[in-house]
Amino acid sequence: MDVVLVVIVVVVVAVVPAIGIGLRLRESVQSMACTGTGPVNRWIRGSLALIAAVIGWLIAGWVGLAAAGLGTALVLFGYWYLLVERKEIRSFREPRSPRHVKPGPADLCLRKDREALLSVRNLTVEFPAGRKDVVHAVSGVSFDIVKGETLGIVGESGCGKSTVAKTIIRLNDAKSGVIEYQGRDLAGLQSEALRRIRPNLQMIFQDPISSLNPRRRIRDVISEGLAVWADESGSWSEDRINELMVAVGIDPGIGDRRPHQFSGGQCQRIGVARALALDPKVLICDEPVSALDVSVQAQILNLLQDMKQRYGLTLMFISHDLSVVKNVSDRIMVMYLGKVCEIGNANLLYSQPRHPYTRALLASIPEPAPTVDVSESDIAGDLPSPINPPGGCRFHTRCGHATDLCSTTEPTMTRVGDDDHHVACHHPVEVSLTTA
After folding, report:
1. For residue range 324-375, what is the model confidence (pLDDT) as tens digits?
2. How far apart are CA 2 and CA 18, in angstroms?
3. What is the number of other CB atoms lying within 10 angstroms of the CB of residue 34?
4. Taking a C-beta distance cutoff of 8 angstroms, is the pair 229, 199 a contact?
5. What are the DSSP E strand ranges found in 165-287?
6. How far is 322 from 303, CA to CA, in rounded Å?
C-alpha cells in the first residue's frame, strides 16, 4: 500500500508538472526552429529539455521523493528529447521530400523552348479535415515561369491559388510533385538548404495590415531580413532602408511609426519594401490589391510594375479579378477547384478563351473580352466541396457544354493552335479569329 501511495505522489508532483513544462518548452523550441540551425541550437534545445527534467526532480524532492523524482525526470527527459525533439521538431523543420511522380498530361503546358526560372510539375497538396476526410486543395498542377516574366493566376475563391503560392515557398508541404527553382527541387530541400534559398523567393501577402507585426516600427519590419542575413549577404545600413522606403513611396522620416498608423495602401507598400529588401529573384504577390480601394489598387499595380523593371523581378501575380490580371501579366493560368483549366499567353487567352470557365470569368469583368457574351457569366450552382470533388472534369457540374464524357473522364491539357495556349476541356469553345 505504501508503494502504491509513493507512485501516486510521484506521478502527481513530478510527472504531471514535468510533462506540462516539457510541452510548453516544446512550443518555444518549435518557434526557435524556424530560425535556428546548427549544433549550437541543438545544444540549446537539449538544455531546455534538461531544465524541464531538473524542475520535475526538484518538485519531487520537496516532498522527500528526490530519488524517485530524479528517476522519473530522467525518463521524461529521454522521452521528450528522443521522441519530441528528434521526431516532431525534425518533421517541423525538415519536411520529407514529396513523393516523386512521373510526368503527366498536365506537363504538356510546360515550355521546352525556353529555360524556366521556376517550374512546377504535377503539384498536389492535401490537408486533413477531421479524422477521415481530406481537402484536395491542389491536384496535379503544372506550370513554369521564365526569368523576367509575370505569370497571373486567376480563379474564384477556394480554387487553390494561394495554396500553390504558399507551397512554392514551403509554407505548406506538398503531397507530391516537383517545385524546381534554378535546377533544385524546393520540395525536397531540408533545413539549412531550404533556409538559404528562401531569400530568393519572397511573398507579398493578401492582408497588408495583419501581415505586419503591430509592435514593431516599420523601419524594423523592413530591415529584419537584412539584419538576419547581413553576415552572408553583405552589410546593410540605414541608407539601404531609406532607399527601399523611398522606392515604394514611403517617407523615411516616418519610419519609426507602427503599422496601425498607416492606411491599407501604405501598409501594402511597406510589405513590398520588406519583400524587396533581400533582392529576391521571384516575387509572389498573393492578391496584393484585393483589400484596397480601386484608386489605391492602381497605385500598387503601378508600383509593382516599376519594381519589376528596376530590380529585374520575376512575378507570380494571384488574383480572382481577371481584369486586374490581364493588365499586369505576360502569361495567365486559370484554376478551378484545384485544377488548371487553361493557360497561355495573356493576349491569346483574353482574345481567344477556349475553356467555358475562362469565358465565364472574362464575361463577368466590367469590360468583357470581345469574343464572349455577357450571358456566359451566369454559372449555375455553387462551387463543389474540395473534400469530395466531382469526377471527370471538375467544372462539369456547372458547365453548360458538359456531356456524359465530362462526368466520367478527366480532360487532359491540350495545345490549341500553334502558339502558347493550352486548355483542359473535352469540348473547347471554338473562337472565330476574325471576331477576335
Report:
1. 888 899 999 999 999 999 999 998 898 899 999 999 999 988 888 788 888 8
2. 23
3. 10
4. yes
5. 176-181, 184-185, 201-204, 282-286
6. 19
